[in-house]
Amino acid sequence: MSTTRSRSSQKKQETPRASDPSRSMPLVSEYDVLTEEEQQQVLRRLVIQNEADIRMFSTFLKMPTVVILMLNLLFVYNYVTSGFGTADNFAGAKMPISGVRIYAEHPIVATELSVVMLQFALYLLSYERWDRLTKTSLGVLLALGTAHALTCRKSGVFEFGWWMLPVLDLVAVSYAQLNMRRSREGIRDLARATYHIKSA
Predict the structure, then answer these.
(1) pTM for the complete prediction?
(2) Rounded Cα distance, 134 and 154, in Å
(3) Gap between the Cα atoms of 16 and 31, Å rounded
(4) Which one of 50, 124, 177, 197 has the fewest CB atoms closer than 10 angstroms to its CB?
C-alpha cells in the first residue's frame, strides 16, 4: 500500500515538469504559440530595437572614421604649407601629432586615396547600400589602399600603419554593415515565416 502511494506521488511530481513548456521550449516554438496580435507586437519590438542598435553602432563607427579623415587632411595641410621645394619637405613629410616622417613618393596622391576610402566608409554607414557597384568600388579601393601600404612598408612600421588605417577602417565598416543587413534579413525571414504559417 505504501509502495503504491509513493509511486503515485512520484508521478504527480514528474507530471508538471513534463507538461511545463516554459522549461525547455525554444524561441521559435514560444513565438509560434503566440496569437497573431502578439506576434505582430513582437515583430514591431524587434524591428524598433534592431534599428536603434544599428543607428547606435553606425554612430560609434563614424567617430574613428572622422578622426582618421581629419588627420589625413591635417597631414595634407602641413605638407602643403611647409613648401614643396624646401629641404625639409624633401626629407620626408611629417605625420600628424607623432611627427614621424613619411617617405612616400607621392604623399598627396596617397592621401587623396585615403580620403576617398574614408568618405566611402561614411557613405556605407549613412546610406547602407550594398549593390554590385558598391561591392566593386569597395574591392577596388581596398586593393589600391593595401597595395600602396605594402609599397611603403620598407619605410618603417609607422608609415605602413599610417597608410593602412583607412584600409582597416573601411574593412571594419564593411563587415559591420554586412552584419546589419543580416540582422534585418533575420527579422524579415521571421515575418515571412509567420505569414506563411497564417496562409497555410
Answers:
(1) 0.70
(2) 32
(3) 22
(4) 197
